[in-house]
Amino acid sequence: MNELTLGAYILIWPALTLWVLIMICRGVWKDIVAARKENRELV
Predict the structure, then answer these.
(1) Measured between alpha carbons, how far is 2 from 26 in angstroms, rounded to an integer?
(2) pTM exceeds cut of 0.90
(3) Which residues cross the membrane (predicted)?
(4) In the chain, N or C terminus with fewer CB closer than 10 Å?
């Protein structure tokens, strides 16, 4: 493998992890907003 391919392979994992974390936070935020709107607790 050349250096560019190996570097791209190594750097893609933090980007994918960040994307998943953003999606999880987005879902939790929507749940928080919905719970406040319905005047109920999140848990």
Answers:
(1) 37
(2) no
(3) 6-29
(4) C
Q: What is the pLDDT of residue 16?
A: 96
SS3 28: helix
Tell me the torsion sign for CA atoms 12, 15, 17, 23.
negative
In contact, 41 and 35? CB cutoff 8 Å = yes
User: Within 10 A of 18 (CB to CB), how many other CB atoms are there?
Assistant: 10
Residue reference for tokens 């929507």:
30
